[in-house]
Amino acid sequence: MDTILEVKHLSFAYGSQPILSDVSFSLKRGDFAAIIGVNGAGKSTLMKLLLAELSPQQGEITLFGQALSHFRDWPKIGYVPQNGAAASENFPATAEEIVRANLYSQTGFLRLGGKRQREQTRQALESVNMLPYAKRMLSELSGGQQQRVMLARVLAASPRMMLLDEPTTGVDAQTVQSLYELLGSLNRETGLTIIMITHDIAGAMDTVSRVLCLEDGSLVELNHAQLLDEMKHRHKHPIPPKQTNRTYSV
Amino acid sequence: MVSILDYEFMQRAFLVGILLAATVPCIGIVVVLKRLSMMGDALSHTSLAGVAAGLVLGINPILGAVAACIAAALSIEAIRKKIPKYSELSIAIILSAGVGLAGVLSSFVKSAANFNSFLFGSIVAISDFELILVCCISAAVLVCFLVLYRELFLITLDERTARLAGVPVKTVNFIFTILTAVTVSVAARTVGALIISSLMVIPVTCAMQIARSYRKTVLWSIVFALLFTVSGLFLSYYARLRPGATIVLIGVVVLVVILLAKSLFGARGRAGA
Lengths: 250, 273
Fold this sequence. Notes:
The structure holds two protein chains of two kinds. Chain A is built from eight helices and ten strands. Chain A is an alpha/beta fold. A six-stranded mixed β-sheet of chain A has the order 6-7-8-3-9-10, with helices on both faces. In chain B, helix 1 packs antiparallel against helix 11 (214-239) and helix 6 (128-147) runs antiparallel to helix 9 (169-191). Chain B starts with 7 loop residues before the first helix and ends with a helix.
């Protein structure tokens, strides 16, 4: 089975306010899709629908061949929330503790498998170049390093699909570039399917394999020429950055 | 010379104090990290309504407090789910309701002294029933905390990713809510309803200043709570002070000392760098 995610005729409204209208798309194993759109286009709503936090009024979502309403294999999905690092920055735990805790689904009631989990944690931290900081408290790390820990937390559980909600919000240009390089290599080398909500089309363009644009509640896939047009349009009418009180750096 | 520990009531006080000192921070760390520090206050005030109801209806006031606390804790969780962006409102609403109900019901209580003993606690006047209750509840809380250690860690870090990691978030939250309610209502009888939330929060706050991991934060919280309780019982005995209030004030003093030391040594470190 090559199709990982299938969305068919999805519609959603908050009360009488329509957000998504007849949205359809599918992702195959190894796809790296960026979802773009102006603020309020419904990108985060779509993410909540994919995570079953909201129920669609119409249409259906299928994950790994199962209707989302019956899907229980959530550890297959890795999710990096928007501002996830900032929200947890004062949590009194080390990078290692945070990453290892996400291996929850792989431990039984008796919490066996400690050695294997330590190795998985080590590998996940190494993959994001954070192994030297494993014993550091999250609050002692820079914003960019915290974001890498959040990524390692998801990677440790070896997800089959990864959802990222604006992972570069408030992140400085250098960190953004290294984040894209990391995601790109994970996608190429492991066949990890990735959906990333982003405003940064220009930065992500060389890394992603598909660009899906949400506009007026509809979703369209952009080809290369359309993407260049969109970027020119964005250059003339840039999207104001979301409010954030910090800038990340490595 | 008669030692403090020669008295049976002091032996009981130390036993109950030590059990609660080991238990309350386990609840406290989750409450603090969920940004629900005032939850202990809301529950302990509501427990007074249960105490008053128990005294009016002629049932054991602690059982009344347990029932009221469970109802209050579940209501806080329900309101928090309804308005997640203003989750602290749920505590304010239940706190107000608890105080109001306790105020109204207390006017029907015949024995004011009995009711007042729940305000500041009476750790040196523990009955056999209360001793057994504290032992059972402490054991239950410690076992549940150890069994649910990883689940609670993930939920306090982020409920959404906890669910995706496979944690049964609703079930764990429900169990934790019940444990919190039961612990607060029993602890209110010993250290007092007005100070139980301090015992829940201050040891954890002290631990967060010095610990270098989550596991160490939990262990240091318990160490601080034991330190405050044992020293508080000794001091209150010799200085003839209220034990519950003395325990909490020692905690506040230690916290202030740690914060001052941190800022002093931090400033020196920066100046020397």
